[in-house]
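3-dehydroshikimate dehydratase
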Amino acid sequence: MKTAMATVCIPGSLPEKLEAIAAAGFHAVEIFENDLITFPGTPREIRERCADLGLAIVTCQPFRDFEGMPDAKRQRAFDRAERKFDLLQELGTDLLFVCSTVAADAVGGVDRAAHDLAELAERAARRDMRVGFEALSWGRHTYDYRDAWEIVRRTDHPRLGLILDSFHMLARDIDPSVVANIPAERIFLVQIADAPRLQMDIVSWSRHWRCLPGQGDFNLGPVMEGLAANGYAGYLSLEIFNDRFRAGSARSVALDGHRSLICLMDDTGRRMGKTLAGAVSMPPPTMIEGVEFIEFSVEDGERAAFETWLSQLGFVEAGRHRSKDVALWQQGDIRIILNSDPDGFARSYQISHGTSVCALGLRVGDAAATTQRASALLDIPHEGTIGPGELAIPAVRGVGGSLIYFLDHSEGLARWADIDFAPTGRSTTGSGLTRIDHISQAMHYEEMLTWLLFYTSLFNTRKTPSQAVIDPGGVVQSQVIESGIDKGAGLRLVLNGSQSHHTLSARFVTDFFGSGVQHIALATSDLAATVTALTAAGVDMLPVPENYYDDLEARTDLTPAQIARYKALNILYDRDAAGIFLQSYTGTRDGGFFFEFVERAGYAGYGAANASVRLAAQAGRARPRTIPRA
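Tokens:
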């Protein structure tokens, strides 16, 4: 299959859109009618521009309200079609995109639609052109692709074919299995779109909430398997109407779009045990086995304070880098790297973002294979400066320009700490922290779908339903991604974004000068004991409002003694059908970063019921922002 993208998917002027689509590696483009109308040049200039960029033009779409028009309007519909044929010829393409009519006065019936489309196909043949017919999910009479196929089949004209759109099928829960029985040569174009499951009218759903494959809740597998089964090898095109995309970067959305199709074809081929035509060869997505390390870039003047904080949390400096100003701190299975080296990636990251998390080290089954898959998915590789005897760890760019390193059990990568760091011999009793429970990344709201796709396409993951969390400054959208947690430590990752500039996550992105890790949750088997130790060590803990504990007493069966203990230690409580969850937080450092401490007992969630309480407590302690006077 060849890849294409409709210009409606991305923001910008038509020339900017074409350049972005070409730069992302697409084979072709669908010109959306509004983009053509607002272009100050001629259609021939668009054709020449696309040719210079190496883009074929699939069609200029859509052509509306054609079939079934009453006699008084029928000739006018054909006149409009002839003018559209003229335009398509000037653009250098041969496909007239006809979507099923929504006109209130249109006449229904398969025979009438087939009659009109047969005549249109005959007119197209005289111009050496084709007609593609699509069933809009809100069409007046034809809203099911199976009915559209019956119209095309009954017409039996070689210049008339079917246009399929996954959204129009799946939004109405129409069975896509018939796709496999449609001859591939009668399918002229396939448009692919995902979407979240929402309760709203289909038109609004389609025009505002479509998203790229893998970013929504639709099961695109049966649609793709049907196309693979019938041997379809034409264009697989993205037609995405999404308000987030219109507010984003054209190049970023286009790149995401190509990545989504690469992943979709790879996933389909693996399920079917065959390689799809046009698919990119790559290793399968890998499960994340755990977080090997979290690396902070630390400004030299802040190093002492940060080390004091880690010591109070129960960490010990376990190793010093053999050639750089880098230290390894450890407690249990948690490894934190502090990097204050004056040269290299961490230094440039610190200059841009301040003291912050600049890299994550993830343990996977095969680091080389993961790197190959990342490259095939158009992720950006990173090669840093390697000193004598230092280990080269493969990495790609992640959220906010940070790095994600891949480590595995192979000789060398499994011994990264021993190779790069000289042990200090120091030890600590610690505070009971054992491992990393989850990592939370704050980002611009418009970026959330980009990074969701990044993680889900590269790794073997499970995503939970998106949730809206109430912050005193607005609503925060939260999306959880999990990998490998059923087989061990794995990775739990929480993506947060907000359209409001006043939420804690939005303020973090602003103060941090970009997206990044806002907080890290560390696990303990006894949170009360851990918090007691942290408090005794002088750690600034986040106070919880007293009203929270009054409410806890009213809505739970906790004893007064348990509630009193949680209140004294500022511990939050939640439970689900499987168990309980306890949480506590440090105060927020300059820049907005903080640690969370959790105790799980069978509980699978993240304390969503407590999120608004925590956010309100943090907002109450946040430094006020100065509002410029007019």
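The mean pLDDT is 95.
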